[in-house]
Automatic annotation (TrEMBL):
Lineage: Eukaryota, Metazoa, Spiralia, Lophotrochozoa, Mollusca
Regions crossing the membrane: 12-45, 51-84
Gene source species: Elysia marginata
Annotated keywords: Membrane, Transmembrane, Transmembrane helix
Keyword Transmembrane: yes
Protein name: ABC transmembrane type-1 domain-containing protein
Length: 104
């Protein structure tokens, strides 16, 4: 009877050790998974933040480009109008006209 109790106690110790090892492994795996998920979430947030900054910079660059194009168009139109007014003025003087060509 005593031998059976000793064998049972030894088997119980083995079972307890196995259960403890399994619990420790499960806890370690859960901790690793949580850490990986947190790191991935942080990296994802940083990537999104970087993308937002990039998009804002691109929109600002586009706005500057549009402003530059508008300024160039206005300057070209002003030059063309000035040339047309100058030509009209010269022609009016050449034919002896008293008309005043005005440029607004």
């Amino acid at each position: 009877m005593r031998a059976v109790v000793i064998k049972f106690a030894a088997a119980a110790k083995v079972v307890v050790v196995v259960v403890v090892v399994v619990v420790v492994v499960v806890v370690v795996v859960v901790v690793v998974v949580v850490v990986v998920v947190v790191v991935v979430a942080i990296v994802a947030v940083e990537v999104v933040a970087i993308l937002v900054v990039v998009v804002v910079v691109m929109v600002a660059d586009l706005a500057v480009a549009v402003i530059v194009v508008v300024v160039v168009v206005v300057v070209v139109v002003d030059v063309v109008v000035a040339v047309v007014v100058a030509i009209a003025t010269v022609e009016a003087k050449a034919i002896g006209s008293k008309e005043i060509v005005s440029y607004w």
